Each structure stands twice: as structure tokens, then as C-alpha cells.
Amino acid sequence: MSYETILVETRGPVGLITLNRPKALNALCDQLVTELGQALDDFEADQAIGAIVVTGSERAFAAGADIKEMAGFSYMDVYNSNFITAKWERLAKCRKPTIAAVAGFALGGGCELAMMADFILAADTAKFGQPEVTIGTIPGAGGTQRLTRFVGKSKAMEMVLTGRMIDAAEAERCGLVSRIVPAAELVEEAVKVATKIASLSQPVIAMAKEAVNVAYESTLAEGIRFERRLFHSTFATEDQKEGMAAFAEKRQAGWKNR
Ligand code: CO8
Q1: What is the pLDDT of residues 192-219, one digit of tens each?
Q2: pLDDT tens-digit readout, 170-189
Q3: For position 86, what pLDDT does the model report?
Q4: Catalytic annotation on 58?
Q5: Could you identify the atom of ligand 1 that is nearest to the CA of residue 105?
Q6: Residue % of the chain over a pLDDT of 90
Q7: Cα 215 to the chain's mean position, in Å?
Q8: Which CDD domains does the annotation name (predicted)?
Q9: Top-level CATH class of 201-249?
Q10: Of 32, 65, 69, 191, whose CB is crowded by the most CB atoms within 10 A?
């Protein structure tokens, strides 16, 4: 499939999607979000792909929703079209592991998109912010919810109410990103981490991801119960037998993804 606003490639078992609207700092126009969703659908359906990396340019992961595109929308336009519909949430719905590799600006919808990935690897140049209030609106793709869960109420409130950007170091301190790497190594490092994940048992990885995500949507007791059920389920897989046998026999496991 050919795309106009993203670049799509595979690096071994990793699907790599690069947001590519350089003149608009990768602003998330409707076409880009549609194309991103299609590329994610394709990688999800491809059994050879075990993990997905989404990245942008050195200057910007994405500077938000496309302000010029949405500026003239009326209430009825956005209500009737359910603007920010399910397709904006596509990344959050992936079953395969996803990494956002962020350099430069990740603002508004760009920050929200990065937070939809399983984790964020940040370049030392990364800048995160929810500046929507400075243009007369509020975060609309999970910013008030996911950011608050990641960084806590106080910092989320300050960021959402003032639009202040935080740099990579502050983002790491407050738990928004998993770690920081030099900008020149960002994509290679993200692909390396994704390759490591993709080299493991895909169904077991999917269960681990599902269990962590439940921590955001349930009580501790429910989450622990859910985790235990999935943990027990791994003992029904061939890969649990293979992984533990390989450990005992001091050899590499040969995963069957079953
Ligand atoms: N939308 C459209 N165009 C943009 C956007 C954007 N969000 N951001 C930058 N651009 C364009 C600029 O208009 C400019 O285009 P042109 O050359 O034609 O004038 C080009 O990109 C380069 O930008 P600047 O000249 O402004 O570059 P600077 O380095 O001076 O500034 C900034 C960089 C600080 C990032 C600045 O561009 C900026 O403040 N951008 C807007 C950031 C913002 O407010 N983002 C929030 C948007 S609202 C939002 O995201 C709501 C979320 C709703 C859900 C989305 C679901 C994913």
C-alpha cells in the first residue's frame, strides 16, 4: 500500500512507521490518522511482525492535531462525525507491542498518540506538552486521562492548565517515558528493543501486555486476579514448556508462538 503522510517499512520482525508531514511538524490530519490506522492493521495481520515502532522526525514526533484542518469545525461537525473517532485510538487498541520513539515536539494529539503506545522511548531532544488550552480547547484524545495516570494529578494539572512543555529529563523523572537515548540513536535503539520483544513468544508477550494494561482499568484486587488467570494460562502454551526446558538445558529457546 502506498501512503502520502507516513513511511512504512519492516526491519526484520519489527514494523516501523514514520510520521511524515515535515512541513507541518507531523500535525495529525485526518489523512495521516487514517493511513496510520491502515498501516497498523496491516502489521497486526502480518504474522512475521512481532512488535511495532511509531516515530516521527528529528524535529517533531507530532505537533498535535492539525489545527488548520479543525479550526473551522462547528459543534455539529465534530459531534455528528464523532470527531476523534475510533481510528484515532487505533494505536491504543493494538494487540502487538508498540513503542513510540519520540524526538522533538510531542504536543497535544502528538503527546496523546505517544501515550497510546505501550511505552515511550525519548530522544534527549524530546519535548512533551498538552498546549490545547492555549488555542481554546482541551485535550481530546485521552490527554487528561492517560497523562494523569502516568505522571499524577499535580503535574498533569499543571501541564494541561498552563500548556507548559516538559523536556526529556523531566518526562523521565515523572515516569512519562521509559528512558532517554541520544537523538541520533533513537530509531535504532527503538528497533533494537522491539526486536528483542519480537524474538520472544508472541502469545506470552500479548498476555503480559494485556495484564499490564488491566492495571489502568481495574482495582488492584481485580487486576491481581486477572494476572493470576493469565499466568495460569501460560502453562497451557507450548512456549512455557519450551522456555522452561531450555532454561534447564542451558540452551536458547525455540519459540513456537503456540
Ligand atoms: N497543526 C497544523 N500545523 C502545524 C501544527 C499543528 N498542530 N504545528 C505546527 N504546524 C505548522 C505551522 O503552522 C508551520 O507551518 P507554516 O510554515 O505553513 O506556517 C509549520 O508547522 C512549522 O511550525 P512553526 O513555524 O510554528 O515552528 P516553530 O519551531 O516556530 O514552533 C511549535 C514549533 C512550538 C511546535 C509550534 O508549531 C506550535 O505551537 N504548534 C502547535 C502546537 C499545538 O498547539 N498543538 C496542539 C494542537 S490541538 C490538539 O492536538 C488537540 C488534540 C485533539 C485530539 C488529537 C488526536 C490525536
Answers
A1: 999 999 999 999 999 999 999 999 889 9
A2: 999 999 999 999 999 999 99
A3: 72
A4: no
A5: 35
A6: 94
A7: 17
A8: crotonase-like (cd06558)
A9: mainly alpha
A10: 65
Sign of the CA dihedral with 83 first, then 111, 8, and 26 last = positive
Superfamily classification of domain 6-198: 2-enoyl-CoA Hydratase; Chain A, domain 1 (3.90.226.10)
- Cell numbers 493469565 correspond to 230
Q: Which of 35, 66, 67, 88 to mutate to test the pocket of ligand 1 (most atoms within 8 A of CB)?
A: 67
Element (H, E) at 99: strand 98-102
ipTM for the predicted complex comes to 0.96
Ligand 1: does its nearest atom lie under 6 Å from the Cβ of 118?
no
Return the pLDDT at 76. Answer: 95
Domain ranges (residues) in the chain: 6-198, 201-249
DSSP at 28: B
Confidence category of residue 82, pLDDT binned at 50, 70, 90: confident
User: CA dihedral in degrees (64, 104, 35, 4; nearest 10)?
Assistant: 110
Residue nearest atom 3 in ligand 1 by C-alpha distance: 24
Query: Which residue has its alpha carbon closest to ligand 1 atom 39?
Result: 63
132 phi/psi in degrees, rounded to 5: -55, -40
Q: Is 12 a catalytic residue?
A: no
- Which sign, positive or negative, has the C-alpha torsion 248, 250, 251, 252? positive
* Ligand 1 pocket member 104 (CB < 6 A): no
